Amino acid sequence: MRKAFSMVTAIFVIVILATIAMLVLIMSSTTTYNTTTQYRHEQAALYARSYTELAIMSVLDYNRTQNNNCVNQINGTIGNYNDGSGYDITTIISYIGNTPIGCNKPSNANSTTLSNMPDIIIDVYVRYKDPEHVATSGAAGATAPAITYHRRTLQKI
């Protein structure tokens, strides 16, 4: 009787230890995933801010009168977007005010009431893929959904 009781106790302790180990592993993987997701989101926000500043510098440096057009879009890729390790960035610049014909304008802009110096609306879209979904999307030609971070800025030139 005594040996059987020791065996039941040992099995019970092993089951408890295995449950605790499994809980620790689940918590560890969840924490790692959340940290990676937060890091990717913060990187997207920083890239959006950088491309906003690049758009402002591009508009200020570009001679609209001589070229009779405007800087309307700036595209960029950082890293390899397709495998989930990079970012795809699209910057769209819309002009409000008296600008040449080739410039993007918002649909509700009334240029007769605006000044000679244009204001610009900068929309930056930073797309990236969730690394966890990229690894599982290889089966049957599925693609991982893109996460898009959007930043809109109104800048007086």
The helical percent reads: 40-55%
Q: Give the uncertain stretches in residue-range form.
A: 111-115
- Structural shape: rod-shaped
Global Rg: 27 Å
Category from helices, strands and their pairing: alpha+beta
Cα end-to-end separation: 90 Å
Number of domains: 1
**Strand order in space, largest sheet:** 1-2-3-4
Report strand %. 15-25%
Mean pLDDT: 84
SS element count, helices = 3
- H/E series, N to C? HHEEEHE
Characterise the protein shown here:
There is one protein chain. The protein is α+β, with helices and mostly antiparallel strands and 157 residues long. It has one domain. It is built from three helices and four strands. The protein has helices at residues 2-61, 64-67, 131-136, and strands at residues 73-78, 87-96, 119-129, 146-156. Strands 1-2-3-4 form a four-stranded antiparallel β-sheet. A hairpin with an 8-residue loop joins strand 1 and strand 2 (87-96). It starts with a helix and ends with a strand. The model is unreliable at 111-115 (pLDDT under 50).
